[in-house]
Amino acid sequence: MTDAPDATGAPEPAKPVRGDPTWVAPALTRDEQTRNVGKTPIFFGPPLAILTEGQRNTLEISGKVNRTAERYLELLRYHGLELSEPERQCLAHICHIGFMSPLEIRELPLEVSLTRFECEGLDKAALQVKLEAASFADLVAVVESLGF
Question: pTM for the whole thing?
């Protein structure tokens, strides 16, 4: 493929074509265009092994993982809580323990009541009530939004 000159006479870089692993279909959204398209090695820990149990070929497994990820991203998009900056700081402090298991996420209201974290504008009792009223999907979305 040769580079065609643009209006200034300088050659434009060649654009990937269908079949090239870097090619992205023009109908994709901006977010989809920036994704890494192609095969990626991934460690299948117990959750993914359970999710794909019974599927034998790569297309079935890939399809299952991608459908699940798409649905998970939609859950994150429509769930979460309105939090003040002091509330976010408190939860980030609690989440800094590292990996947050589902049980630890469910226990966030209790953790708020137990933490010694303090900052200006933080009402831990109100935050605890807000977290207790939240669904598990809302709690997961909060943890994800904090980067944990």
Answer: 0.70
